[in-house]
């Protein structure tokens, strides 16, 4: 259960006030924001850690639970944790207090992936109905560049486990007799110690069912579930990047009949585009001009992400590498939309006839160019 220590991630002491935590998060998040570090995987990872740490430590209730776990040594660095001191701004309890285990609030943790599972495996299972859900199902979804950038929907075929129709998920053959599982003595879970406290896992023999059948179900061979395909349509938020994760409630698998389905955690992978690429909130494309267009000026019709074409006036004497800005045709995020940058390339004719060579030499001489 080695997770990063959230206080270390934010660079604050474990007695930091809410204001100190917020300040540290703002400063670091700004520095490591993916938009400020396009294409930098390390920064993206750091940003994710910061978000996770902030999500937990900025919520008095989640922080309290986290501190408890940390003192038990569940996280890296937890061994050095000192007494139960709490920041001045941290209110014990709070509006979300009653009975809600951290990490099972859906989207909040889901956005940052994994953490919900860490929490739900540490805090006892079975305290809330959600905790009988199947574990979150992870999948990677490839998204075309345009959909990732502007937002949209992608259809996805998932390989999921559904309750077996023959045994309704029980794993026993029709008519089988049941006896108490000898492996777990009918508890359904096996405990093992780790870092000073015990973690429970479903019993491998009865698969958590507490009982075993005299004869396993012939359809699912006792597993209780069968593999099947399901079509889902995933909503892709605008400004999605490779590595962006979303958690979709109840779109995962159902492992036990009657139990609610688990969540689906989608990690997006953005397919590169042949024409466009992203730089923060801007969209960059390269457009080749020939010598005459660059030297004499021209008008260009440039494709935008929306699929429309915008007329761009290129002045005479435009140099290779120069960028022209088309306002408001970039990526939209939190109500802000970037621009499209058109970067000019200049192509040089590969072959000239001897007549053309003579004309070019003549030109060079009149312009005082050496060759
Ligand atoms: Zn068992
Ligand atoms: Zn079955």
In a nutshell, what does this entry contain?
The protein has helices spanning 6-10, 18-32, 41-57, 60-71, 107-110, 115-122, 145-150, 291-296, 354-367; strands spanning 137-143, 152-163, 178-180, 189-194, 197-202, 211-213, 225-236, 245-248, 264-270, 276-279, 282-290, 298-303, 309-314, 323-326, 332-333, 336-337, 340-347. It is of the alpha+beta class and 371 residues long.
Characterise the protein shown here.
By secondary structure, this protein is an alpha+beta fold. Among the domains are: 1-90, Helix Hairpins, CATH 1.10.287; 276-367, Urease metallochaperone UreE, N-terminal domain (HSP40/DNAj peptide-binding domain). 23% of the residues lie in helices and 27% in strands. It has helices at residues 6-10, 18-32, 41-57, 60-71, 107-110, 115-122, 145-150, 291-296, 354-367, and strands at 137-143, 152-163, 178-180, 189-194, 197-202, 211-213, 225-236, 245-248, 264-270, 276-279, 282-290, 298-303, 309-314, 323-326, 332-333, 336-337, 340-347. The strands form seven sheets. It has a four-stranded mixed sheet with strand order 10-11-17-14. Strand 4 and strand 5 form a beta hairpin. Helix 2 runs antiparallel to helix 3 (41-57). The chain is elongated and about 100 Å long. The N and C termini lie far apart (68 Å).
């Amino acid at each position: 259960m080695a997770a990063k220590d959230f206080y270390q991630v934010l660079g604050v002491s474990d007695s930091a006030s809410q204001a100190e935590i917020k300040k540290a998060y703002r400063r670091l998040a700004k520095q490591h924001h993916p938009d400020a570090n396009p294409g930098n995987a390390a920064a993206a990872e750091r940003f994710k850690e910061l978000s996770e740490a902030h999500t937990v430590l900025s919520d008095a209730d989640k922080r309290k639970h986290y501190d408890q776990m940390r003192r038990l040594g569940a996280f890296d660095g937890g061994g050095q944790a000192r007494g139960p001191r709490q920041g001045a701004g941290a209110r014990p309890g709070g509006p979300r207090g009653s009975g809600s285990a951290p990490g099972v609030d859906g989207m909040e943790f889901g956005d940052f992936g994994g953490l919900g599972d860490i929490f739900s495996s540490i805090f006892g299972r079975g305290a809330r109905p959600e905790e009988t859900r199947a574990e979150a199902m992870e999948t990677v979804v490839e998204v075309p560049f345009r959909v990732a950038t502007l937002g949209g929907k992608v259809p996805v075929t998932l390989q999921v486990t559904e309750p077996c129709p023959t045994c309704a998920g029980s794993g026993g053959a029709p008519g089988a007799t049941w006896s108490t599982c000898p492996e777990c003595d009918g508890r359904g879970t096996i405990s093992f110690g780790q870092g000073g406290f015990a973690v429970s896992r479903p019993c491998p023999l009865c698969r958590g069912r507490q009982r075993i059948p005299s004869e396993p179900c012939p359809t699912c061979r006792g597993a209780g579930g069968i593999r099947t395909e399901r079509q889902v349509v995933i909503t892709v938020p605008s400004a999605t990047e490779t590595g962006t994760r979303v958690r979709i409630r109840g779109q995962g698998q159902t492992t036990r009949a009657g139990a609610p389905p688990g969540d689906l955690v989608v990690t997006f992978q953005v397919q590169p585009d042949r024409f466009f690429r992203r730089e923060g909130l801007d969209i960059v494309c390269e457009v080749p001009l020939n010598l005459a267009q660059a030297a004499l000026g021209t008008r260009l019709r440039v494709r935008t992400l929306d699929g429309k074409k915008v007329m761009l006036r290129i002045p005479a004497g435009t140099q290779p590498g120069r960028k022209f800005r088309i306002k408001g045709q970039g990526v939209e995020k939190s109500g802000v939309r970037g621009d499209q940058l058109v970067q000019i390339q200049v192509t040089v004719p590969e072959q000239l006839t001897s007549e053309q060579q003579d004309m070019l030499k003549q030109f060079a001489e009149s312009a005082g160019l050496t060759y």
